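hi!! sorry for the late reply, been swamped w classes. u asked for the two structures so here they r. pasted raw, havent cleaned anything up. first the sequence of the first protein and right below it the tokens
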Amino acid sequence: MEAPAISGDRPATIGPGRLILVVGPSGAGKDTLLGLARAACADDSSIVFPRRVVTREASSFEDNEQLSLDAFQQARSQGDFAVHWEAHGHCYALSRAIDDDIRARRTVVANVSRTVIEALRRAYADVVVILITAPAEILAERLAVRARSSDGRLADRLGRAVDDAATAPDVTIANVGSVEQHARELVRVIKGGKGCVGEAPRSGERQCRSSQR
């Protein structure tokens, strides 16, 4: 698998806008919460939700721009991507247009792989990482219901849902219970709020506390 990469020909860090990275295991519900957050922020032109470029088939669960592998490789060679990575045999990228948004003081919110966090923290001046997660049994149930052919083996997807500490999140949302409530938590962070850590203890109760690093 090719290592994630940041495009060249850029300054040490890009700012002053914020880059918010939404990460988490497959089945955590990232796209659901992002869709609700996007709708809640629709009237705010200072907040941008760029579409990811992907080489796998389009899905009703996501808002992605699909490219063939050849077209993806051509765009990458032309420097069209701010960052690109591979996962589960597919290629992903964010358009270089996000750099212009961040230079214009906008907030860019993107669903990315945890493998690119370190590189993006170096490339951008103000990066916030939001981890969206859920218990393993819930992840398995959601992936089984989704049953998307391009997902590959379920075991492989669940196998990557470990070592969340490696993402060094600034905010963690345990996406169990009310998706509307969790979407509000996400919007609060996007708009500059303190954010919460959502936990789901064995009793099923949910706790929320500040999680600023």
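now the second protein. again sequence first, tokens right under
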Amino acid sequence: MSAGKISMMITNLISLTMKKIFATTKAPSAIGPYSQAVEVGNTLFISGQIPIDPETGKLVEGDITVQTQQVMENIAAILEVAGYTRNDVVKSVCMLSDIANFKPMNEVYGRFYTENYPARAAFAVKDLPLGALIEIDTIAMK
């Protein structure tokens, strides 16, 4: 094997193991010891987003549709700063404070992803941070 090929393999291995942290003021700051998003290789892991307005730092008031819209806007902002698009999203996990909110949440979510839908899980949880009605974490790949 040539020195050039070995060098390229080493560079590829290093890039697969290095992690890069992403943050944007267009999405809410982390409310704990975590990053908005971490990229390893060609995979972006976005921390669970709740419906916080990044301008005020407060939970948006409103029903599940209003809160889901804010969460999706937060995810879009993080994807953008990291150089990803909605089409790069491969997995979403939607946590709802009440499973009865599934249908209206799904309608808003469906406006965000219109083709090449990511895999998804959705389930009810007992409580979400700050009394949010929804939290979504996301994985994207290039």
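hope this helps!! also noticed smth abt the second:
DSSP finds three helices and eight strands in the chain.
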